[in-house]
Amino acid sequence: MTNSNEIEIAQRLIRCKSIAPNANNALKIVEKECKKIGFKCTKLKFSEKGYDTISNVYAEIGHGKPHFSFAGHVDVVPANKNEWLVDPFKGIIKNNYLWGRGAVDMKSAVACFISASKNYLEENKNFKGKISLLITGDEEQYAKNGTIKVLKWLKKKRIKINNCLVGEPTNLNVLGDQIKIGRRGGYNGVVTVYGKEGHSAWPNRTKNPV
Q1: Angle, to 10 degrees, between the axis of helix 6-14 and the axis of helix 108-123?
Q2: Strand 67-73 relative to strand 129-136, pairing
Q3: DSSP string, 127-139
Q4: Bridge partners for 41 per DSSP
Q5: d(CA 185, CA 84)
Q6: pLDDT at residue 1 in the model
Q7: 139 catalytic per annotation
Q8: pLDDT > 60? residue 199
Q9: Calpha distance 55→47 (Å, rounded)
Q10: How many angstroms separate the first and last alpha carbons of the chain?
Q11: Residue 3 has what pLDDT?
């Protein structure tokens, strides 16, 4: 096993007050660390009327298949210091735990993405396939100019991901106690039903569409 630096990277990310939608400082760290280990990084900015312009980072190394991608975000929700036992933006290690806004959701995971990639690349100099990181700055707020737009960009570039690991916390009891192989999604639609209104005392004169 090579030297790992995920804790140090996670601390630096936590110390960035990357409160949505302003995650540029944290994304710069991701980009810098990825470039150190040979990734080609592309900064993607997306806009949509009525929403903030958001920066995202797509980093990749290697060629062909299989294409394994790590997906995550570095933006966080605000933190009230008065409600914390420690400064939420200091990245303090206390009682063998790393404390701070985003430590769980999900800057530690992003740091582990980078560290795991580094270790793998050092141990597999001639690996076949591609590794990528898809890191967004728009998950905690409106999620309009983040992952959705990056995936559309990838499709336009004809870049296909074969397998993806999303580092969102899914544990129930102990940190890291399970890995889930699926994720619920959302679907919006409009349903129009037709009937004939009337009084409940005369149901025979109505037509209930339900």
Answers
A1: 150
A2: parallel
A3: --EEEEEEEES-S
A4: 59
A5: 32
A6: 39
A7: yes
A8: yes
A9: 9
A10: 62
A11: 58
Nearest to 103 by CA among 139, 70, 77: 77
CA distance 40 to 118: 14
- The share of the chain scoring above pLDDT 90, in percent, equals 75
Residues 6 or more apart in contact with residue 21 via CB below 8 angstroms: 52, 54, 75, 137, 138, 141, 142
In tens, the pLDDT along 150-169 reads 999 999 999 999 999 999 88
Considering only CA atoms, which of 134, 79, 112 is closest in space to residue 120? 112
The pLDDT value recorded for residue 179 is: 78
**Furthest CA-CA distance within the chain:** 79
- Beta strand pairing call for 67-73 and 163-166: parallel
**Which is nearest to 30 in space by CA: 120, 115, 150?**
115
Q: What is the CATH code of the structural domain delimited by 6-205?
A: 3.40.630.10
Task: Give residue-wise pLDDT tens across range 12-39.
Answer: 999 999 999 999 999 999 999 999 999 9
Scanning the structure block, which residue is given the tokens 């280990």? 37
Task: Kindly tell me if the per-residue pLDDT of 101 is higher than 50.
Answer: yes
Rounded CA gap, 60 and 122, in Å? Answer: 16
Give the active site residue among 75, 122, 123, 197: 75
The three-state secondary structure class of 142 is coil
Domain edges within the chain: 6-205
Q: Which of 6, 33, 139, 140 is catalytic?
A: 139
